[in-house]
Amino acid sequence: MNEQSIIHVEQLTKRFGDFTAVDAISFEVQRGEIFGFLGANGAGKTTAMRMLCGLSMPTSGKAFVAGFDVYKQTEGLKRNIGYMSQKFSLYEDLTIKENIRFYAGIYGKSDAFIKDKTARLLHQLHLEDQANKLVGSLPPGWKQKLAFSVAVFHEPRIVFLDEPTGGVDPVTRREFWNLIYEAAATGITVFVTTHYMDEAEYCNRVTIMVDGRIEALDTPSALKQTYNASSMNEVFLQLARKAKRNGDEVKTA
Amino acid sequence: MRTLRFLLEKEFRQIFRNPAILRVIFVVPILQLLLLPWAADYEVRNIKLAVIDHDHSSYTRQMISKITSSGYFLLDQYTNSYKEALVDIEKNRADIILEIPAHFEKDLTRENEAIVLLSIDAINGVKAGLGASYLQSIIHDFNNEVRSKWIQLPRFNPEVNIDIRPSNWYNPLMNYKFFMVPGILVMLVTIVGSFLTCLNIVKEKEVGTIEQINVTPIKKYHFILGKLIPFWFLGIIILSIGLFIAWLLYSIVPVGSLFTIYVFAAVYLLAVLGFGLLISSFASSQQQAMLITFFLFMVFILLGGLYTPIESMPIWAQWFTRFNPVTYFIEVMRLVVLKGSDLSDITRHIITVFGFAIVLNTWAIISYRKRSS
Amino acid sequence: MKQFLSFVRKEFHHILRDRQTLLILLGMPIALIMIFGFALTTEVKNARFAVLDFSKDNATREITNEMETSRYFDLAAEIHGYNEIEDIFHKGKAKLILVFPPSFESQLQHVHNPQIQIIADASDPNVATTLTNYAGNIIMDFQNRYNQERKYPYTIQTRVRMLYNPQQKGTYSFVPGVISMILMLVCTMMTAITVVREKETGTMEVLLVSPVSPIKVIVAKAVPYLIISIINIISILLLSYFVLEVPIRGSLFLLMSESILFTITCLSFGLLISTATDSQMMAMFISLTGLFLPTIMLSGFLFPIENMPKALQVASNIFPARWFYQVVRAVMIKGLPLAAVWKETVILGGMAVMLLLASLKNFKTRLA
């Protein structure tokens, strides 16, 4: 295993009955990297990510996240990761402050840490006035940014983002990516799935999944060169044409 | 322990912010205790009587007035024919037809024997049976009065008359509310306890927040405890409100100590909540959870001995009641509230229900999966 | 129409895909019929009783024996003093105690007026009354037999005929009740919850912007439950006819039509609830406390309506189940024609129309 790699995956496979959602994928993610995971709906992105987070049991293959085995060492693994799911998953009937406090609390952070960091975070997001408002009353873009901030609040080594910008306007998406860069700057590795090809350009390296398999893995510029394309969109379309699976067949595990 | 504190903080905040839960906690007990005890009265009285008197004698008038003055029967009306009276039964205007044949008085005094005919709407078999026996005993009394007029008593004594003296302990006035109210309290605590816990967790599944929890290093038993404790408190609060209303409206004060009730309820709630948790780990939507909980608790409550006595159930159902926590609580309530039993009288109940609590909660912890297979 | 059918098809897919729910929806009536039919009888059987016999002679032994061999009682204990009674009741060992005074038999033979005391544990007054009555009847039988040697003058004989239900089976009154309960549950609660669920998840808005009229969208949600209800009615009737041996004396067609009418009333009620609430929990709470409990309590199938306070008797009139219960009893058990239940039918129909109009109106104002 490479010294620098924080995620190490070898021949990882997930089957649901006859259906192979993730088909023997292998890759490494370097420390501090922003690693993009691209693919059409149903390509197996979410399933792969759920296995890496300890939410879904792999059928076969190996995977280590932050040095922890996803089969056996899930508790240690979970202490070192953050996760933001496709579904918005903060409590709508709790306030911003209460949500932060709750999630930080169950990661075992001290009261002083929580208090101090909450103040900084609220300032950074310009949410000081809304700190005691119910999360349910926030506009969608804000919810998304808040969910990300909560996912990295406990300072994990890796954060997994599952289509974090779904249904968000371009301006907010831009702001969201600024947050990702800020987090990466503090040394957090970012593992992000998306189907927005412009976002792929923001990543250090991207993987393109088609029908549960990894079809390409490189930096965006190298990929464009290889496939002789002017944008990631073109690269993706060239690869995705080979797909046999129907888009909506498997969305979640 | 710190994790648990954060979990509890969050649950309590959510509970007190949810108007639906607050309504369930406060409105339901009040509404139910206000209404149900009045309705739940099985006692058979106000039996509607249709009379066909073909004789129109002074004896028949005496007999009918004796029947109507007993307090059990309401005279619906006199009809001239059985056919007319049957229409009354069909339309639920009458429950019993009392038909007195012509020459009743003459037969009784001259032939030494007269007949009256009773036709009873027996769809409700129990009511019919009791109605018949009340009516027969009134007629029997009337018969004795008639006899004593015709025969000198000393000379006519060989008929044995056993004097039956019934007495009713613990509830001498036969107040149905003393019996129903504790039972309704059990229902309340059971339904609210299991429903709320179950729905709470399933809602987190539906909304997706549970996944966010699953990806944290939180321990399974922390999560379960974090759900159990708040709803345990809610259960105790509902019980207290219920006991208070029982005292306020129906002056029901337990003969035994409140402490005994609370001790049992504390253990009982653990079992019921465990049940709710268990269901939540199998259900994927709130609708499904509600339906399952509702169905199971309907069975539990119906077979809990509140509505019908356990002794009269068939063996398989009696076996079932032994594994039904509701049975134990209803029995304990009756023992403590009406008979004044103390902790030592109900140790067996406490131990059994504690056993259920352990099994159900362990099962719930095992079947709650942080990771899908 | 075609659009409408495609909506109905979608609702069916939802229901058919959730096997567990479907299983419960269809299995519940069967389980309830079995429970009510076999396990729940208000008739008391095998009640434990104890004897405190200060006399111990042939007569007391005979009465005790009669009690024990009757299907109503089981002898649990013989006790020897009044002080033991408290313990027996406290531990729940017996529900009734028979006390024979000393020299019972000689009293019987010479004074003709012996005494028996029946002490009942009245913490359950229903059981106490019933048991005291049963025990009284057994003693009366004994007395009558004892008296039978000679015929007495001036005797009034009563001849009793039990109409509709000669064996006085409890199932005759439970089956109509269970039908009303199930229909209420499936139609009202399930409909209300499914509609509210679409509101909660936001898919309702998607449906409402489709070219189909909103009323059709809502009605389409109710159709599958109507069909499930019809299946349930059929399975209840089959079970009660073949397994519980409850007769269907009236016209089957009339019975089914009335049931469908009641189903529609319940569905409209469910729709009304769904237009007035936003969370599944609230919908369930309203259907449960506002409808289901009153149905059980006030429709007359568990507790006699005529015993309730006047206010509750009046209140019971607004619950559709109260009327439907009367109809089922009349048609199914008594075998009466429509002419006998036209009033109830009109009331149910009127309720259905009013509820439907109210929910549609409510629905429109919400959209506007």
TrEMBL record, chain A:
Source organism phylogeny: Bacteria, Pseudomonadati, Bacteroidota, Chitinophagia, Chitinophagales
Source organism of this protein record: Flavisolibacter ginsengisoli DSM 18119
Any one GO MF annotation of this record: ATP hydrolysis activity
Cited Pfam families: ABC_tran
CDD domains: ABC_DR_subfamily_A
Keywords, comma-separated and alphabetical: ATP-binding, Nucleotide-binding
PANTHER family: ABC TRANSPORTER G FAMILY MEMBER 20 ISOFORM X1 (PTHR43038:SF3), ATP-BINDING CASSETTE, SUB-FAMILY H, MEMBER 1 (PTHR43038)
Presence of the UniProt keyword Nucleotide-binding in the record: yes
Gene3D superfamilies linked: P-loop containing nucleotide triphosphate hydrolases
Protein's name according to its UniProt entry: ABC-2 type transport system ATP-binding protein
InterPro entries according to UniProt: AAA+_ATPase, ABC_transporter-like_ATP-bd, P-loop_NTPase
Keyword flag Thylakoid: no
Domain ABC transporter: 7-236
UniProtKB/TrEMBL annotation, chain B:
Species in which this protein is naturally found: Flavisolibacter ginsengisoli DSM 18119
GO CC list: plasma membrane
Signal peptide: none
Membrane-crossing segments per the record: 20-40, 178-202, 229-253, 259-279, 291-310, 346-366
PROSITE patterns linked: ABC_TM2
Listed GO MF terms: ABC-type transporter activity
Residues covered by the ABC transmembrane type-2 domain: 136-371
Membrane topology: Multi-pass membrane protein
Family statement: Belongs to the ABC-2 integral membrane protein family.
Record-linked InterPro entries: ABC-2_transporter_component (IPR051449), ABC2_TM (IPR013525), ABC2_TM_bact-type (IPR047817)
Protein name, as recorded: ABC-2 type transport system permease protein
Highest taxon, organism lineage: Bacteria
Keyword 4Fe-4S on entry: no
Pfam families the UniProt entry points to: ABC2_membrane_3 (PF12698)
Cellular compartment(s): Cell membrane
Keywords: Cell membrane, Membrane, Transmembrane, Transmembrane helix, Transport
Automatic annotation (TrEMBL), chain C:
Keyword Protease belongs to the record: no
Keywords, comma-separated and alphabetical: Cell membrane, Membrane, Transmembrane, Transmembrane helix, Transport
Subcellular location: Cell membrane
GO molecular function: ABC-type transporter activity
Membrane topology of the entry: Multi-pass membrane protein
Main location: membrane
Gene Ontology terms: cellular component: plasma membrane
Residue ranges of the TM segments: 21-40, 172-196, 217-244, 250-273, 285-305, 340-360
Similarity section: Belongs to the ABC-2 integral membrane protein family.
Protein's recorded name: ABC-2 type transport system permease protein
Organism name: Flavisolibacter ginsengisoli DSM 18119
